[in-house]
Amino acid sequence: MSKCTLNKEGRDNMKAKEIMNKDVITVSPEDTVTNLVKLMLDKSISGVPVVDEEQRILGIVSETDLIYPEKSLHLPAFIPILDSFVFIEGFRETEKEIRKMSAYKVEDVMTKDVITINEDQDIQDVVNLMIDKRINRIPVIDKDKKVIGIITRSNILKHIY
Known about the structure:
Blueprint: H1 16-19, H2 33-43, E1 47-51, E2 57-62, H3 63-66, E3 78-81, E4 84-87, H4 91-101, H5 106-109, E5 117-118, H6 123-133, E6 137-141, E7 147-152, H7 153-160
Parallel strand pairs: 5-6
Antiparallel strand pairs: 1-2, 3-4, 6-7
């Protein structure tokens, strides 16, 4: 695993709140995928946190989630036994793939296991988390899990250089 050090200008312990974007564009799980795509294209953004009515984080949607319908469907392997099929792999994963490929609402395409940070997190830790987990954006939440900001790779690059 690679680790990053943010000491270009002698700034140690820079916090997430210092570089996070506070004007976060969010969507509801009930929004349509079509409207989400329009929003992302209009705002030139590549990912959006999904929140409830109180702005608490429920998920996140990225461009990768939205191009999922173009993916080839992976059918589970099976063995025919006595005029029946015994699935070697779990059929649930295939069911999830089908649901995501035919999504109409944001809740059908969003990633539910969202990595988040708090506003006092050290930027060095945020960068390491983004690299280690291979993610492009991290929502910043308060103690009530409400979205108060977002940090993207470009936020970090602007502050490094």
